[in-house]
């Protein structure tokens, strides 16, 4: 079963705001009468790569539950967790540090193994939790 990531206003403002500013500066300098200075080319390449990364994360963040695993994809961040290894899910809390393939706040913190955790933000937290519980009913659910 596939789940899209919820996108909140904060992430949209950051993604499109920074990308728009960077791309606008690059386009302005492309059409400016003065040629590029050699010392600015590296800055423009870095701005273009940053804008592309932000847009890639925005448009390519999703989750999938297979028979045995939870698969997450968020731009270049990709991975999977065996559902049997998941021992707890914290619902409605935001993880500010760590692995965060998410585009919204108030998502799910998936705790697995002894100390590992990943933060995701599906469009519907309850639906994803129910699908995981169908495959592993020993998962503890904590609401925050």
Mean pLDDT: 91
- What structural category arises from helix and sheet content? alpha+beta
Spatial order of the strands forming the largest sheet: 1-2-3-4
Number of beta strands? 8
The geometry reads as: elongated
Roughly how much helix do the residues carry, as a percent range?
Answer: 25-40%
Q: Kindly report how far apart the N and C termini lie.
A: 26 Å
With helices defined by DSSP (H or I, 4 residues minimum), what is the helix count? 3
Number of structurally distinct domains: 2
Q: Name the beta content range.
A: 25-35%
Q: Ranges with pLDDT <50 over ≥5 residues?
A: none
Q: Order of SSEs, N→C?
A: EHHEEEEEEHE
The largest pleated sheet is described as:
4 strands, antiparallel
Structural write-up:
- It is a single chain.
- The chain has 144 residues and is α+β, with helices and mostly antiparallel strands.
- It has helices at residues 9-31, 38-59, 125-135, and strands at 2-4, 61-65, 69-74, 77-82, 86-93, 107-112, 116-120, 140-143.
- It has a four-stranded antiparallel β-sheet. A four-stranded mixed β-sheet has the order 7-6-5-8, with no helix packed on it.
- Helix 1 (9-31) runs antiparallel to helix 2.
- It is elongated.
